[in-house]
Amino acid sequence: MKKLIIAVLALCAARAVYADEIILKDGTVLKGTVIQVTDSAVEYDPEGPAPFDTVSRERISKIIYPGGREQHFLLDSITLTGGATIRCSIVRVTKDSIVYRKDGVGEEITLGRDGVARIDFSDGRSVEIAGKEVPVAPDQPAQKPAGGYHSSIFRMSLFGGGGLIDGGTIHKERRVFRSYRTDLMVATMNIFDHDQYAGFGTGGVEMEFMPPAIRFSQERAFDFTGIKFGIRGRYGYEQVMSVITTDAIHDHYDGPDDIYTGRLMKYHYWTAGPVINFIFSPRSNVANFMLSLYGMAGQVFGGNLNPMSSLRQSKNLTAYLAGVWSSTGLQPLMGWANLYSLSSLNKTTVRGHTIRCGFGPEFSLNRHFPLVIGLHVTYAYTSLTYGRAPLIYMDGNKKAAHHELGGEVSVGIHM
Length: 415
What we know:
The chain has helices spanning about 1-20, 170-190, 315-320, 330-335; strands at about 20-25, 30-35, 40-45, 55, 60-65, 70, 75-80, 85-95, 95-100, 110, 115-120, 125-130, 155-165, 195-210, 215, 220-245, 260-280, 285-305, 350-365, 370-385, 400-415. By secondary structure, it is mainly β.
């Protein structure tokens, strides 16, 4: 008997905890279990001895179910321009649309304002919609962004890049290569024709000094907000590589005779010049997007040139030119005739000047960490003067100029 009483009490307690709550318009709260909701009334099993009861829908404000879900009975009314009426709960009204829930529950539904004539709220308010312009305040007033990259005065970055190179020394290299192309095929016993290419790689550090940006008012969520001018200085180190390949490499790799590489030249350089950034910002100014354009000029120093470095990578050709073996049988004559091509007789220093420019997007963080990342398309014109005219070029000219087209990535901080 004692166990039965405990079970009944536990059941009653559970019903009390999980009971639905029917809130009437006068504030009365009826607790029980809702059985069904009809067009005119709500049927429910009340707490206590009564097994069944009903209450008119017109007396009910809302029902709160276990878990927090609510069903509202004080509904708003949307009258459409065609005369139809929608009973619902208005969620929000904007300048373009009206968002509501049917019967106060379910998912949100969006209705265009141009199809609505009037809204009657459950509290008695009535708003005419058709033919009226509703003034909508902007998210925030127009303002000029402050802080972040707009206010930075110094930037330091590391950069690296590469690309293709042509002209000047590269033309001299190709002219010599064409004269030795047949010898290379004979020496390597490779029937495939050979081609020569050249590319460059560069990297270094750069610093930029810049006054605060010329700011513009921000009227949109993402807007053009400033122009920033500065002076950028750069130290760089560059290597130019020469590569000889055969046509066979396009189909398969057939051993070391398919490709020869060598460092043609290396040098240091410094440049300086103006830079301009067009700054675009979100309203939060947590980050900036920039379009950057720079142009710099400076000097080349501490460099050296090793003509036909890739061609000398073929040991068979070296032996062939030295007269160790020959297809003609004139080994001694061949060796003496090619003394002028020895590396020791052709190495020389290089110096000169260079002009470099770049354009591309940059991205900066402002609040969490002052990071700046840039990606640029680059062009460079470099005029070099050799310490002596290399014998192998056979032109007696100590000057050459080349063009470089490539890209670079920079990563740094702004302060």
